[in-house]
């Protein structure tokens, strides 16, 4: 594996999940694979779970890890070509990426969208340039439009906890106070659509009018604006807020209650509840669910390690 | 050891000091104990000595270390239950702690008091919740009311440098420009009171009127408002500023000079002078003392490694 | 080696370059040399290449690395003696350096000049005090007046890529939007002057009037204010901006074009072009050069590892 950016980078969904679960049962089985190899984690935006779980995964494989926090103020990168750099950007991504590639065998990159210019965000310009210029394999630690390590984690978690062969999985929009990116729901959707194609799940998306995701990510999904209809018979409910794709980056007032709570849980098939975290309690998801037996959120976060580890393992094997 | 938060977590003061000194003479004797174990150090407030010494201690034991700097602006934690999280806190401590527990075998946490609401600070709500929710052993890297790694260091240092069986140890208040927490003096006091009970030291606290510490930490200590009386015959003088506990977080003008200097040193039994650092030169403690033969401050800082290492060793043995 | 601060700390320029190239061909040959040794990297100013390359070098030698980012706001150090510390500085360099020396076997320090007070910057007060007080070997990660790891890297890179026995090397001033320190050009100049003395290169400096470097660094160099004259017959062009030393820290308007581009490259002997990075594209150096076959900037950045590694290796051998 040379790149882990979208579901298209994984040929065998079932195989990668099984390999991740095998690493979970023997975390140190490949601790010599990463000896004298260096993983560089580049964060243009802050991270908690992603940084820790990827660092842990790399250490389990015996790798060295170097973390670079390059917030936009401290080390602003120029991404456009042909610009006279007489402004506030201090380094061009051509040099920054190539230099980091000199020091690292594998690089991870996190870069959030601006949520102002949809075209700019959805072309994934920065990410693609980073991949082109750094010259080493790149793991996405969340880009403008996708968060594939999270989605692989989610598929691992669903596989571990499913009680039926082909569970009904529902991505349910939930309220928030901020305008959040579509990266997590886009990515979850593209992974679940592919899992559905392979007969692994049945996938539904429920969201209020105006919160339609980009169709590139939702092909094959059943989509409804009726939360109750979506939840009916669900085995897994994946709760997540996102801002509008259509009216890009905007947030609409939503009349109906879309917070996931125990009353709504009753409409499901005693569903397990998932969330990528951080979660706003009693706004997105009720405390009673988070603290109750149906919540998988902590185990899901724990599985971030095995998603990262299987990706790094495959990259190391291919260096 | 499952928790290192106060002196109550150490059954055998003498034993733990001897074990620390033994690690000091053989730092790498237990380097296999921490193999494939991960220490997570969570800082809600900045740290220099504590982070470096604990990281060094963990590496001496062969552990991996991950550091998380979560300042209050960047990743504000909600600690109250039943709050609708529609404000500025981005994650509840229930999730944050539990997730970090998924990635780490032992966690360290630093969290300073607000110094506004004594009740809130002294209940150690955040710390206790972190311990409850993370599910792994927790080392305090300084909490609202205590700094036990510092106090253990101090007892190690006194043990190493004492010239008499039962030295007179004086905690002497000193001036500062800022309102500082009571964590270091509280903790030093509770460790010295216990050491006094066990016949290891004789303990006196000297401070101006209005700077009385919480009595929970000072039981058995001799307390005086007369610095000269306190210093008389002292073998060790532990210099430290703190703000008022009674009129919580306030700073009073102090008429008399409370800065420790050579003139005052003459009143002692040629005392060794200690300070947890950072120290304000010529405000808390004179340069002549800091640069002279009676200062232990650098050796004391060096001993932070062995305090952390003995605590981590005991936790690792008990995992 | 106890200190790596200027070219004077290296007795044998040729030997150190050859040793670095030998490490480049066998990066892990000395991986046991640093076992249980700790490198502390202290940054009073931000760093990308220097931190990553030095960390990588240390890991190649089997060392543990601890990074301390102490920006001026967060942990302001007092450097003057005899000051009552009742202001904004929180710790004196005497204590800060000594404490870090307790935890580390080797320390690296980065500290930029203020560019306000030439006398203060050029005495290298902070750096010299840090060296005096920390008690362990110190590597400069760039000081107020020098950047020796960069200059050693540059000599390694020139040695690798030279086509003639004694290439003509030109340090060519270039425009920028900010007032930059003289550390890189000072250091490059003192290394090239020494290399010239040893018959390794022929060295010329080209800069506009008013940008004369301090003569301590340029003894033996040919100096011209005519860029075309300087570039004539050059085998290597080292492009770099700096602010005025004479009118300290100031920036003058420069009438003539001093940006390095393909037209100017034609005046050279098909010169290789170098830059320490980060580079402002199309302001200091044209994109056509940076993206073309004459640029060495990425390989040069890559060589930072071997410069750091040979220095650390010599220090470890001498502990």
TrEMBL record, chains A, B, C:
Residues 3-160 form the Aspartate/ornithine carbamoyltransferase carbamoyl-P binding domain. One of its GO terms (biological process) is L-arginine biosynthetic process via ornithine. It is an enzyme of class 2 (transferase). Gene3D superfamilies: Aspartate/ornithine carbamoyltransferase (3.40.50.1370). Pathway: Amino-acid biosynthesis; L-arginine biosynthesis. Belongs to the aspartate/ornithine carbamoyltransferase superfamily. SOTCase family. This is N-succinylornithine carbamoyltransferase. It catalyses: N(2)-succinyl-L-ornithine + carbamoyl phosphate = N(2)-succinyl-L-citrulline + phosphate + H(+). N(2)-succinyl-L-ornithine binds at residues 142, 176, 240, 280. Carbamoyl phosphate binds at residues 47-50, 75, 110, 147-150, 276-277, 304. Homotrimer. The gene is argF'. It comes from Sphingobacterium allocomposti. Keywords: Amino-acid biosynthesis, Arginine biosynthesis, Transferase. Catalyzes the transfer of the carbamoyl group from carbamoyl phosphate to the delta-amino group of N(2)-succinyl-L-ornithine to produce N(2)-succinyl-L-citrulline. Is essential for arginine biosynthesis. It comes from the Bacteria. Residues 219-313 form the Aspartate/ornithine carbamoyltransferase Asp/Orn-binding domain. One of its GO terms (molecular function) is amino acid binding. The keyword Amino-acid biosynthesis applies.
């Amino acid at each position: 594996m040379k790149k882990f950016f979208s579901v298209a980078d994984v040929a065998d969904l079932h195989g990668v999940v099984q390999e991740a679960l095998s690493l979970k049962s023997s975390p140190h089985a490949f601790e010599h694979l990463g000896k004298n190899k260096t993983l560089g984690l580049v964060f243009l935006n802050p991270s908690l779970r992603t940084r820790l779980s990827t660092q842990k995964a790399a250490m389990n494989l015996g790798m060295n890890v170097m973390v670079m926090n390059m917030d936009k103020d401290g080390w602003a990168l120029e991404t456009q070509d042909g610009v006279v750099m007489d402004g506030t950007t201090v380094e061009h991504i051509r040099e920054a990426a190539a230099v980091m590639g000199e020091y690292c065998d594998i690089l991870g990159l996190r870069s959030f969208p601006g949520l102002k210019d949809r075209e700019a965000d959805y072309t994934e310009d920065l990410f693609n340039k980073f991949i082109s210029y750094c010259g080493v394999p790149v793991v996405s630690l969340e880009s403008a439009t996708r968060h594939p390590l999270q989605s692989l984690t989610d598929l691992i978690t669903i596989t571990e906890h499913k009680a039926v062969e082909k569970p009904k999985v529902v991505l349910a929009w939930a309220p928030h106070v901020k305008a959040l990116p579509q990266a997590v729901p886009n990515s979850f959707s593209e992974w679940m659509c592919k899992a559905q194609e392979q007969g692994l799940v049945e996938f539904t998306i429920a969201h209020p009018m105006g919160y339609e995701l980009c169709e590139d990510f939702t092909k094959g999904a059943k989509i409804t604006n009726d939360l109750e209809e979506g939840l009916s018979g669900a085995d897994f409910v994946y709760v997540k807020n996102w801002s509008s794709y259509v009216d890009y980056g905007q947030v609409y007032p939503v009349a109906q209650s879309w917070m996931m709570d125990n009353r709504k849980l009753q409409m499901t098939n005693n569903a397990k509840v998932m969330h990528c975290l951080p979660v706003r309690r009693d706004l997105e998801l009720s405390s009673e669910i988070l603290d109750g037996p149906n919540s998988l959120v902590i185990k899901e976060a724990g599985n971030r390690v095995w998603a990262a580890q299987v990706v790094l393992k495959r990259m190391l094997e291919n260096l």
